[in-house]
Specification:
The chain is α/β, with parallel strands linked by helices and 305 residues long. It has two domains: 3-73 and 114-197, Rossmann fold (3-Layer(aba) Sandwich), CATH 3.40.50.300; 203-303. It has helices at 3-6, 21-35, 50-61, 76-80, 114-121, 135-138, 141-146, 187-190, 203-214, 218-234, 243-256, 265-276, 286-303; strands spanning 40-43, 65-69, 81-93, 101-112, 124-128, 149-151, 161-163, 169-174, 194-197. One of its GO terms (biological process) is gas vesicle organization.
Length: 305
């Protein structure tokens, strides 16, 4: 088994995936686009389930998955492959008993990286947070997605290009609201993708997801998610409170056998620990800090009475 074959993920449809009308509609549309041969792009803020949805959609395709996570340091070789190490060959000739002849040579060894393997074998490629990679690194994708051809460096094996396998599919994700470490996507690549914009799910869908992920009752999950939604609506934060905050609270509740009530000081402390961190203050802003805490206490009292 090669290193790249070990890097594949064999996905099956997960029984733990929450299939509401909203998630089912997204899944069905994405699968249709992929079956038609188009790459898809899930774009949305943090905490909207882009990666989870990408993995779920890939599982519906039924092919092995190659997962790549965008990185500022990526170059084209990190996607395609490169020369890694040498292959040594030594021949000892003893045909004439009194003469020993040695012949040695060393050849650089080409190793495929994940994009090349996915194109060659017909895997599903998930390129998570692809805008974290520089545009020049992603340029290699242009011919892959349009001409179904991967152009290889001259140093690669004996091939100058490979034809992309007919079963190859590509799913991209990105966060348009982040600025640090994110690059603008080139128009040529955007033009090749079908982009599906994701936003935060409705209250009922988020509550079902949080309940499934944590194991708490749906009624308790509704209270927690209502608290998160209400806090999100105030705008009194530096970092957007997402569904992940609700999952954190719910998992601690399940572990400690808590109920979502303001009468339980443990529950209140967990909510404050997780939600207060969503807003940053200067060391001298004690009055603003206390005002923010009072706001959170009012929300907890209202939604978790």
């Amino acid at each position: 088994m090669t290193e790249q074959s070990r890097a594949t993920i064999a996905l099956r449809p997960s029984a733990g995936f929450v299939a509401t009308q909203a998630t089912q509609d997204l899944t069905e549309r994405a699968v249709i686009y992929l079956q038609a041969g188009f790459p898809i792009h899930f774009r949305g803020p943090a905490g909207t389930g882009k990666t989870t949805l990408a993995l779920h959609v890939a599982a519906q395709i039924g092919r092995p998955v190659m997962l790549i996570v965008g990185d500022e340091e990526f170059s084209a070789s990190d996607l395609i492959g490169g020369q890694h190490g040498y292959r040594y060959r030594r021949v000892v000739d003893r045909f004439i008993h009194s003469v020993v002849k040695y012949e040695e040579n060393a050849v650089q060894q080409w190793v495929d990286n994940r994009l090349t393997t996915a194109c060659r074998e017909g895997y599903t490629l998930i390129y998570d947070e692809f805008t974290r990679s520089r545009p020049e690194a992603n340029n290699v994708l242009l011919t892959v997605l349009e001409e179904r051809m991967l152009v290889l460096p001259t140093a690669s094996r004996d091939e100058s290009y490979i034809r992309v396998h007919p079963e190859f599919r590509a799913i991209f994700t990105s966060n348009p609201q982040e600025y640090a470490g994110v690059h603008e996507t080139q128009d040529a690549l955007n033009d090749r993708l079908i982009t599906i914009d994701l936003d935060f799910y409705d209250l009922e869908t988020e509550a079902m997801i949080v309940a499934t992920a944590s194991g708490i009752d749906l009624e308790d999950s509704l209270r927690v998610v209502s608290l998160i939604h209400a806090y999100r609506a105030t705008g009194a934060f530096t970092q957007m409170p997402t569904m992940r905050a609700g999952m954190m609270i719910a998992r601690v509740m399940a572990l400690q056998n808590m109920r979502p009530t303001v009468l339980d000081p443990r529950f209140v402390a967990v909510c404050l620990d997780i939600l207060e961190s969503k807003r940053t203050f200067a060391s001298r802003d004690q009055d603003l800090r206390m005002q923010h805490r009072r706001l959170l206490m009012e929300l907890i009292t209202t939604h978790c009475a």
